[in-house]
Amino acid sequence: MEVNMNDIFIEQLVKRKRPVKSRIIFIFAIIMVLLVPFTMVFLAANRIIIPYFIYIAFFALAFGIWLLWYIRSHQNLEFEYQVVQDTLVVSKIIAKRKRKEMLRLDVRTIDILAKGNEPELKKLNLSKVYDAAINSNDDENTYYAVYQHAGYGRCALLFNPEEKVLNAMKPYLKKDIVLKIFYHRG
User: Fold this and answer.
1) Distance from first CA to last CA of the chain, Å, rounded?
2) Residue numbers of the domain that contains 110
3) Same domain, yes or no, for 31 and 118?
């Protein structure tokens, strides 16, 4: 069977790792959700405030637990990379409920495609950086693609493509990028 270059469709799904800062904030939020209602119950039981605050404390606890669940589930981020012929589409999936297209990029417009991280991009004088990587500080597996956007100027995309995604992009990339990425020349 013959493969036509116009029939390229590859997709990859990656899940972002939660940073340590997010975990610390969540632990602090748990403490606050438990501390406020129990303080209200303690004050109401000792008749410092009116006893009806026990009911308010119960509803505050229930609402706090729901709010913690909602916030925590919204921190579950996944990114989907789709290569459809000569276009790279990056979508952001929030809590497995909401999908938003972050970026639609013509692969032929990519000027630089290399392994690296966010600090390396600061040297390139970019107007906008799209971060769709698992961990943007991971030098080993994170790629950045620098391209020219009509509205924003020079932009970059941080992402973690697998070999199949890179191979799907290969026919449309500039020759110097192909030599550097696939053949380690230049």
Assistant:
1) 35
2) 5-16+79-183
3) no
One domain, residues 91 and 160: yes
Tens-digit pLDDT string for the chain (186 aa): 344 555 678 899 999 888 788 888 889 989 999 998 888 888 888 877 777 778 888 898 999 999 999 888 888 899 999 999 899 999 999 988 899 999 999 999 999 998 876 666 777 888 898 999 888 676 678 899 999 888 888 999 999 999 999 999 999 999 999 998 888 776
- Tell whether 51 and 136 lie within a shared domain: no
> Rounded to an integer, what distance in angstroms lies between the CA atom of residue 15 and that of residue 78?
4
The HSE-up count of residue 171 (CA atoms within 13 Å, CB side) is 12
| Euclidean distance between CA atoms 183 and 167, whole angstroms | 12
* Residue matched to tokens 């919204």: 74
The tokens describing 124, both together, are 């390139």
* Residues 126, 106: Cα–Cα separation, whole Å: 18
Report which of 74, 88, 71, 69 is spatially closest to residue 16, judged by C-alpha positions. 74
Element (H, E) at 86: none
Overall domain count for the chain: 2
pTM of the model: 0.76
152 and 85 fall within a common domain? yes
Amino acid identity for residue 146 in this structure = V
